[in-house]
Design goal:
Chains A, B: InterPro entries: Amidase_CS, Amidase_dom, AS_sf, AtzH-like, NTF2-like_dom_sf. The structure is a homodimer. In chain A, strand 16 and strand 17 form a beta hairpin. Chain A folds into two domains: 108 residues, Nuclear Transport Factor 2, Chain: A; 384 residues, Amidase signature (AS) enzymes (Alpha-Beta Complex). Chain A is built from 16 helices and 17 strands. The two termini of chain A are 38 Å apart. Strand 7 of chain A pairs antiparallel with strand 7 of chain B, so a sheet runs across the interface.
């Protein structure tokens, strides 16, 4: 085994890094370097000019040193960018690269017009990385055609986790979840851990819990271990997964897109393979939306079916325990632990579809769902899908407003006092929601509760003893850039998602997200909404549907 | 911003991955792929054959698909391997690659004889990666000339950490360590955390601590936070850093080499930038050796100067609190918190060198130390370096044996009962040391204590009121491969290191590791051994020496 030993040729003026003893004289080939830089005129000058530009965040220079056109590529742990424009756009928003020094370079000519330079880097903040660049000579000028940048990762990804261990909490007893690892949304009490609720200000005042939430205790008692406390949108009051304090968890199934939330860290932990079970909560879609955005199996349970004891509330009228997994088998196994014992699933009930609900989804998502329904009709236990509804669009919008009013009143009852004292330390979007919540009157709440009762009855009637098919979210995961910029299109998309997710919330019904993929290969999902208490059967049925996403 | 959308052409028979809806017909260029694979005859066939070979760990096929010779490169997060032989050797020992599927490929021709293929991968266990391969056509056959492989990292590196948080424990009060983060060796009690001592069997029986060790509490009281519990050699009874249960922490300053131990996780956490302070212990070199191997500043304190309350003991006659940092400033700041208040440092005392001690170091290490001493004589506060000693080699070896006998007797007193019950769950090397310890008689201990008293007096006389210069370890960090294979050369190297490190241990004296570099650019270190109680001054002086490693 050999490793890279030669020190690089001394870095040029302006480049970072301190020349060290043993550094070869500039221009002298480092010992053992098979292709001395001097053999390729201009190449290393371009390399060091890029390094200078990178360290100084000199965007025009970096743009000029990358080959123009749609073929140019740059990849790192966030994902692969294709095309000069995409790369330039990324650079423009990241605010500079971490400071580093080059500790070794290896250069290889690839014919007369191409070369590859592999550089070993050391971040000034610690750790080592590698940068592989394929250079091309365009009209006498060397430019990067392909770049692959890797740095040593941080201790852990604070966008996903707040605390994580091997395990954080060991199992209390063996059971059917032996070997499974749980990412616990940072709303659940775990003995010895503080609860952060996605808010550094809340965390700072928290003391270690003395008891463990009922749902977590049940998982520990069935053989699972707790891997860690996973990120959440602040007080779970969002569906995006964006957390301005800790960052948005990555979505490995859809790079550069948001994770979905509020059970964002639990979802990403499962997507990333950090945990096998993502324990979350679902008030108005907080399990279903990240499941859909990240291609996971997920369940929101019947309201009241699983104890919420030891859980920071958002809106107790709608709050439910939910969880996510990469396979329907694990999703179902957790159900056997957390859900009330149920009789074996009866025959597969009919699937029902309200066509207007499919119309609330973007075309690519609706097409993926239609294709799945076709597969399920053609080959599977579901049989023919029955039309249901319609739901009057005006009533539907009124139901959502009622849901939001009740959610707001209850969120304010739970957190208003804290928000009153610390509201300036909330993220703007969450603070805005709490402000609206605070403005909602008791009279408005009463009217909302009437509407909610109407909606509950109507949705339960639509479901009957069958399964209502509802898009889990109106779209694929929005690009993080678009989500951050906000604007009307994003807000309309969010409203359409809420129209879809609020139905199970209002009706208190269970919903299982079946992960699907759009034609472009992006994750999306369809929810199977079942009758109250049908959770266990729903989990069994969902796993038997053919052709869900791999 | 654009990302990679096209699905790859269907994977060939035998290749992993499930064809998904939207997969283009085999042979048809995927939409948007600038260089269709069909335009480069044979390239994608070779790519998929490599993927098959990788998934089946078909070593001959992989060897054949990598270009022969010393120019070929393969890099991943472990480091960069140069040369076909080194790459083949690595593959032969890793036991196969993680299972994955290719979710997208991008192909670019680089002239007639070269091409680059960027593949986006999804691990079956979760997460997404990127593989960049530069291919070359050798005699009509495509072979990989350069490969860069990246996968999404695990939740955290269990070789470095057992539990880690953001923070794991917040500061108790503001102070001079505001913003600093501590990697706590998994021997210190931290309220709410279990102590693992590097042993899963020990951890399994541990209960959360109710109080925090004095040294950790002092750091928390001065503004530092605890980042996590860091790896240690099992019961701290080794200097290598290899832990068969959790793996050897990476050494980012010397890839493919061991971390040094037993404060291995604390050292690697600091090297990797995961924490700014690595809290460890030093009985017979457990701070000095990893500091030297990883290019860190480190201190072993005067025996008894810093409370060891709340610490799992190894050998209380020699056990000391120690710590590591990337800069002398941080090392010194920790000293201001943990060490007894001391008068301002007097004038720099003389440096003394026992030439025979330098001869115990490998040539590259001795040369680096000599070069440092030359710099310090030429330009710095140290002035001329005085020869001291000699130490009779036979007495020296007898002192080490005495050190080991006392260490063994005390380690057995501390852990013998546990080892008697659970010894089969210890790593072989640690179990072997405990067996030797158990065999040591009270008579042997008494004789050893006499020799130790002689050594203590002799070393203290050599140090006087000056500073004795001693190599921190006899060698650079051994290659992990060699360390694992063991053998006589490694054992002799280890004995020479112990001869060096036992001196401060026997004498109960403080020692600061000043990081240096060999001519090849590998970390090594020299210890400044000062008079008892001179710790604070030693820290100040060490930081003022010119030309330590960057």
């Amino acid at each position: 085994m050999s490793a890279v030993h030669p020190r690089p040729a001394a870095q040029e003026a302006g480049a970072p890094g301190t020349p060290t003893p043993g550094t070869p004289t500039p221009g002298t080939p480092a010992p053992g370097t098979p292709t001395p830089s001097t053999a390729i005129p201009g190449l290393m000058e371009a390399f060091w000019e890029y390094e200078r530009a990178l360290m100084e965040n000199d965007l025009p220079a970096m743009d000029a040193l990358f080959a123009p056109g749609s073929d140019t590529m740059r990849g790192d742990s966030s994902g692969l960018l294709v095309g000069h424009e995409a790369i330039s756009g990324f650079r423009g928003t990241r605010g500079g690269a971490p400071k580093r020094r080059i500790v070794a370079t290896e250069v290889r000519a690839l014919g007369p017009e191409h070369a590859v330079v592999v550089a070993v880097t050391e971040l000034l903040s610690g750790g080592r990385g590698q940068q592989t660049q394929v250079w091309v000579r365009n009209g006498g000028t060397w430019q990067v055609a392909v770049a692959h940048v890797a740095v040593s990762p941080p201790a852990f990804d604070r966008r996903v986790w707040r605390v994580v261990g091997d395990p954080l909490v060991p199992p209390a007893a063996p059971g059917i979840l032996d070997g499974e690892t749980v990412a616990v949304k940072d709303l659940y009490a775990v003995a010895g851990q503080r609860v952060g609720a996605g808010s550094p200000a809340h965390l700072a005042q928290a003391v270690p819990e003395t008891t463990t939430a009922a749902a977590v205790a049940a998982l520990l008692g069935a053989g699972a271990s707790v891997k860690g406390m996973a990120a959440t949108d602040e007080f779970a009051y969002s569906l995006a997964g964006t957390n301005t304090h800790y960052g948005t968890p990555p979505n490995p199934k859809a790079p550069f897109r948001i994770s979905g939330g509020s059970s964002s860290g639990s979802a990403s932990a499962v997507s990333l393979g950090h945990a096998s079970i993502g324990l979350g909560t679902d008030t108005g879609g907080s399990v279903r939306v990240p499941s859909a955005y990240q291609g996971l199996w997920g369940i929101r349970t019947t309201h009241g079916a699983v104890s919420t004891e030891g859980l920071v509330p958002l809106a107790p009228s709608f709050d439910t325990v939910g969880w996510m997994a990469r396979t329907p088998e694990v999703l179902e196994a957790v159900g056997r632990v957390l859900l009330p014992a149920a009789a074996p699933a009866a025959a597969f009930p009919g699937l029902r579809l309200v066509p207007g609900l499919l119309d609330l989804a973007d075309g690519d998502v609706a097409a993926a769902i239609r294709a799945a329904l076709d597969r399920w009709e053609a080959d599977g236990p579901a049989g023919r899908i029955e039309p249901a509804g319609p739901i009057d669009p005006d009533r539907h919008r009124a139901w959502l407003k009622a849901f939001q009013a009740i959610q707001g009143r209850e969120a304010w009852a739970a957190h208003g006092e804290w928000v009153g004292r610390h509201g300036d330390r909330l993220a703007p979007d969450v603070a805005g929601r709490f402000r609206l919540a605070a403005a909602c009157t008791a009279e408005q709440e009463a009217a909302a509760r009437q509407l909610a009762a109407e909606a509950r009855a109507a949705v339960r009637a639509l479901v009957g003893d069958g399964i209502l098919v509802v898009p889990s979210a109106a779209s694929v995961a929005p690009l993080a850039r678009d989500s951050a910029a906000g604007g009307e299109a994003i807000e309309r998309q969010r409203q359409r998602t809420l129209l879809l997710t609020c139905l199970a919330g209002l009706a208190g019904l269970p919903a299982v997200n079946v992960p699907l993929e759009t034609a472009e290969g992006l994750p999306c999902g369809v929810s199977l909404v079942g009758a109250a208490g049908s959770d266990t059967a729903l989990l069994a049925w969902a796993g038997r549907l053919p052709g869900a996403a791999p």
